[in-house]
Amino acid sequence: MRTLVLGGTKFLSREIARQARxxxxxxxxxxxxxxxxxxxxxxFVRVDRSEDGGLAPLEGSFDLVVDVARHPSVVRRxxxxxxxxxxxxxxxxxxxxxxxxGEVNQKLHDPLPADADENDPENYGPAKVACEQIxxxxxxxxxAGLIVxxxxxxxxxxxxxxxxxxxxxVLVPGSPADSVQLVDVRDLAAWTLDAGQAGxxxxxxxxxxxxxxxxxxxxxxxxxxVEPELVWADQEFxxxxxxxxxxxxxxxxxxxxxxxxxxxxxxxxxxxLAAGLRVRPVAETARDTLTWLRDSGHTVSRSxxxxxxxxELLRLLA
Length: 318
Ligand SMILES: NC(=O)c1ccc[n+]([C@@H]2O[C@H](COP(=O)([O-])OP(=O)(O)OC[C@H]3O[C@@H](n4cnc5c(N)ncnc54)[C@H](OP(=O)(O)O)[C@@H]3O)[C@@H](O)[C@H]2O)c1
Prior knowledge:
- The protein is α/β, with parallel strands linked by helices.
- The chain folds into 2 domains: 143 residues, Rossmann fold, CATH 3.40.50.720; 127 residues, UDP-galactose 4-epimerase, domain 1.
- Helix content is 34%, strand content 20%.
- The chain has 10 helices and 15 strands.
- Helix 2 links the parallel strand 4 and strand 5.
- The protein starts with a strand and ends with a helix.
- The model has no long low-confidence stretch (mean pLDDT 97).
- Bound molecules: NADP nicotinamide-adenine-dinucleotide phosphate.
- NADP nicotinamide-adenine-dinucleotide phosphate binds next to helix 1 and strand 5.
């Protein structure tokens, strides 16, 4: 089986390339090579998809193409430039295609208009809707939720791993019953390949079933072999003290304000689980994430509170 990974130089697409190689596929990764290196023992073709004809260096046909792109113009170019040479498309999309985070529904954003700014992060959801429409109904649409695990540079889940491993009282947001959802990058890669190889088509929300924040933290603690002292801070306190939700500086990652985001981390993904997605226990993801953190020397800096910020907030709560 000849598999083209459009990407392959970082996180999810690199993991997909690695696993496809381990399954015995003939793997071609196509990227600029700026984000990182592809996994060993795959063919790497240097391309720049921002230019017309950018995929010209790719020769031959492919049984499966996996694309992780975010920009409609780039996806359209790939569909046109590879026309007639692709057995099946698997497009990695996102749960951010859903228009209303306040309640669970299937309503999508309108696709990003052709003259809109694809690079504006605010346009991420509409851009992915446009990408989905370009690859079409015959493609597998992998609507990923929060992707976590080794090599994740966003520090959302990794913050909690590093924080619980560090010890001492831990400031945690919201309540133990708050819903969270995630998927380990290795499980998402495995299912994308399984579903792509099987020729599955149409949209699938690719993430765990919802579970509680208390369970999340307990799972991380179990994986690390620690017994953390959790200090819960409610939404009013966090908002009042300018703690940011979800990610970024001065944030408590994976926390979202309610009711504004009441529909975001509660999606019923039983159809995808029935179609074979297996999400490993949080404890296993946490343990492997800590191993990667220590081996790679990665520093958690993109999301979370600094030790000083957390200590100050804990003092105010005491
Ligand atoms: N992280 C999450 O929690 C999350 C949640 C939901 C959905 N998703 C989706 O999951 C996917 C994550 O993919 P990923 O981990 O592989 O990260 P990514 O940042 O989406 O990777 C982009 C890939 O495309 C390549 N690329 C970028 N610009 C290019 C260009 N002009 N020409 C050729 N190649 C180019 C990059 O390599 P070079 O820079 O080396 O060219 C890289 O390999 C994305 O589709 C994202 O939307 C992520």
